């Protein structure tokens, strides 16, 4: 009896720590789930703030309701008041270094174009004046590997739709883009393409936007937000890729700002593990227009980009020593139906050699 009695406290003491540990684990679970998002690294890249989404929704609704019937717009050679215009949409996160070249490009063509600038408010960007004076629209921050670049382009389209019902084409360019033809050439190129295609009928303008399928790495980009996230709105066989820079018709600009169905998918942030495959701005516009009106798109971009030797998703950047008359002529050439009208990417210090070529080469067709 005496020999066996010590067994009771020994067994009790061995069970108590185990029981206590179990109770502590159960009690700590709610605290773990509460603090985990702050302690563990985020699973996705930053999302668009809800306040930005609400502001955009109101803007896009106004632009959609205010847009007139684009079929009433005239074409070059047909008397209209005012004539149809090209809206140039500058998307930038730094100073517009090539403003003097663009000034020379626009000179003498007032009444045939409008300028709009979306400048990232987190950067200290100074208006260069001239045609850019008073043309900066309310902007939100943008960043790579983020749908914020799509939002910025949509804001530019909405602002241009609201500002002038004569805007018939909408050309998206960046601070690194330069014209490689005269304004007269550019204007005739976008309008005459529609007129020639319609063979004398009322012109139905077409958008110049690159739309590609079956490209290498497309599946990785499709699942950048998750394996099944894009379904059912966008199946993989509907997923497209193309240049971020385009020239859209007015009806397609309206379609973009009106869209809610595809946007609810593309606005979702990419998984952090898929950051290297996250380029939503290269997919949203070609996918949307390919699904809605493929016959209304040429399938070509009018902006020439050199991807030879690209680094980190950035194309080749031209330096002053590369800027020659021969380079400009080569950049114009295309294997497709249409000549290139713009080119990128140029470093800011290319301004002087480009200005030297402006009258003799760039703006002389």
Automatic annotation (TrEMBL):
Taxonomic superkingdom: Eukaryota
Compartment(s) of residence: Membrane
Keywords: Glycoprotein, Glycosyltransferase, Membrane, Transferase, Transmembrane, Transmembrane helix
One Pfam family it belongs to: Branch
Primary location group: membrane
Acyltransferase recorded as keyword: no
GO molecular function: glycosyltransferase activity
Transmembrane residue ranges: 18-36
Topology relative to the membrane: Single-pass type II membrane protein
Keyword Membrane in record: yes
Any one annotated GO CC term: membrane
Official protein name in the record: Uncharacterized protein
Lineage of the species this protein comes from: Eukaryota, Viridiplantae, Streptophyta, Embryophyta, Tracheophyta
């Amino acid at each position: 009896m005496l020999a066996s009695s010590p067994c009771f406290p020994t067994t009790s003491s061995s069970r108590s720590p185990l029981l206590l540990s179990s109770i502590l684990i159960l009690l700590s679970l709610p605290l773990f789930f509460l603090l985990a998002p702050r302690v563990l690294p985020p699973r996705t890249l930053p999302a668009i703030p809800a306040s930005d989404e609400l502001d955009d929704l109101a803007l896009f609704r106004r632009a959609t309701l205010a847009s007139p019937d684009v079929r009433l717009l005239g074409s070059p050679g047909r008397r209209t008041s005012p004539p149809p215009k090209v809206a140039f949409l500058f998307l930038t996160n730094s100073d517009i270094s090539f403003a003097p070249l663009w000034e020379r490009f626009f000179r003498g063509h007032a009444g045939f174009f409008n300028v709009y600038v979306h400048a990232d408010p987190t950067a200290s960007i100074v208006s260069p004046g001239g045609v850019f004076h008073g043309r900066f629209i309310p902007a939100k921050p943008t960043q790579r590997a983020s749908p914020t670049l799509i939002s910025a382009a949509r804001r530019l389209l909405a602002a241009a739709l609201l500002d002038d019902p004569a805007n018939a084409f909408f050309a998206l360019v960046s601070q690194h883009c330069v014209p490689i033809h005269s304004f007269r050439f550019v204007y005739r190129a976008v309008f005459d393409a529609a007129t020639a295609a319609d063979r004398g009928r009322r012109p139905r303008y077409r958008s110049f936007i690159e739309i590609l399928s079956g490209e290498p790495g497309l599946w990785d980009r499709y699942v950048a937000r998750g394996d099944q996230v894009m379904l059912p709105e966008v199946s993989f066989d509907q997923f497209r890729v193309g240049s971020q820079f385009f020239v859209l018709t007015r009806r397609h600009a309206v379609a973009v700002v009106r869209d809610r169905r595809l946007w609810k998918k593309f606005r979702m942030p990419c998984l952090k593990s898929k950051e290297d495959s996250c380029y939503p701005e290269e997919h949203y516009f070609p996918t949307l227009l390919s699904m809605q009106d493929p016959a209304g798109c040429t399938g070509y971009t009018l902006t020439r980009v050199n991807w030879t030797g690209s680094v980190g998703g950035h194309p080749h950047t031209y330096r002053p020593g590369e800027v020659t008359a021969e380079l400009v002529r080569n950049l114009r050439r295309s294997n497709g139906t249409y000549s290139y009208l713009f080119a990128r990417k140029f470093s800011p210090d290319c301004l002087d050699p480009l200005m030297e070529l402006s009258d003799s080469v760039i703006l002389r067709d």
